[in-house]
């Protein structure tokens, strides 16, 4: 077996393993927050906006319902998920192509982290990596 094939299989097994055993990673998940922070590259808050944001996602789709403007819908290109304590402690990493209602598309990298009783979502665009959006979740749970 070629070395590159072995590496590919090892990577595929690792990715499969990173979602195995965690039912949360296999279901539709919904996160809601009541405030959106826009951070500078050094993590200081540049601006904040109040208003409920709801995000629903699976391993293949990502949908954002902002408080005012239209829905953003997305296709997930990469997904990794590991929640030793479901919906409480863990991390999800998503690379998605999100499209707004006008058809403008943007590649986003989204990280959702749970630790010390708080679930935080960070999102940044490939086009503007210095601009980070942060949501601290009010709720984070399986979509029923």
What do you see in this structure?
By secondary structure, the protein is mainly beta. It has a single domain, classed as Lipocalin (Beta Barrel), CATH 2.40.128. It has two helices and nine strands; from the N terminus they run ααβββββββββ. The chain has helices at residues 3-19, 23-26, and strands spanning 29-39, 45-57, 61-65, 72-85, 89-99, 105-115, 118-125, 132-136, 139-142. Strands 1-2-3-4-5-6-7-8 form an eight-stranded antiparallel beta barrel. The longest helix is centred in the N-terminal third of the chain and has 17 residues, at 3-19. The chain is globular. The N and C termini lie far apart (44 Å).
Short description:
The protein has 144 residues and is mostly beta strands. It is 15% helix and 57% strand. Mean pLDDT is 86; it is low at 9-21.
Observed structural traits:
eight-stranded antiparallel barrel; 2 helices; Lipocalin; 144 residues; mainly beta
Fold-level CATH name: Lipocalin
Q: What structural category arises from helix and sheet content?
A: mainly beta
Distance between the termini: 44 Å
As for the number of domains, it is 1
The level of helicity is 10-25%
- What Rg is obtained from the alpha carbons, in whole angstroms? 16 Å
Low-confidence parts, pLDDT < 50 over ≥5 residues? 9-21
Beta-strand residue fraction: over 45%
How are the strands ordered across the major sheet? Answer: 1-2-3-4-5-6-7-8
CATH class: Mainly Beta
Large-scale geometry:
globular
The CATH architecture = Beta Barrel
